[in-house]
Design a protein that fits this description.
By secondary structure, this protein is mainly alpha-helical. The protein has a single domain, classed as MazG-like (Helix Hairpins). Helix content is 62%, strand content 0%. It has four helices and no strands. The protein is flat and about 50 Å long. The mean pLDDT is 93.
């Protein structure tokens, strides 16, 4: 993604702009989930949405934030998984094999 964004003079949005974009995208995901699983159904004239595309939009903005701040998301994710697997080791009931 960095290669794609780097071809434009404007480059990455400022961090606060990206956080605002992230909040907007999370709101769009919430709306889709509410339409699909919650009490708020779509109006007959509203176009069909896609939870997958809303998640992809969120991922795009998260990657933009990480790239613009020089954050290695692979490393951060590895650290986060190590944290939750040790902290939550006995928290959940394992499935029988």
């Amino acid at each position: 993604m960095d290669g794609w964004i780097s071809q434009f003079e404007e480059g990455y949005f400022a961090p606060l702009v990206n956080v605002a974009r992230l909040a907007e995208e999370v709101g769009e995901l919430a709306r889709e989930v509410n339409h699909r699983f919650g009490p708020k159904r779509k109006k007959p004239d509203e176009p069909a949405g896609s939870i997958a595309m809303e998640l992809a939009d969120i991922l795009f903005v998260v990657i933009c934030i990480a790239n613009s701040q020089g954050i290695d998301l692979d490393e951060a994710f590895t650290q986060m998984m190590a944290k939750v697997t040790s902290r939550d080791a006995g928290r959940w009931t394992r499935k029988a094999r």
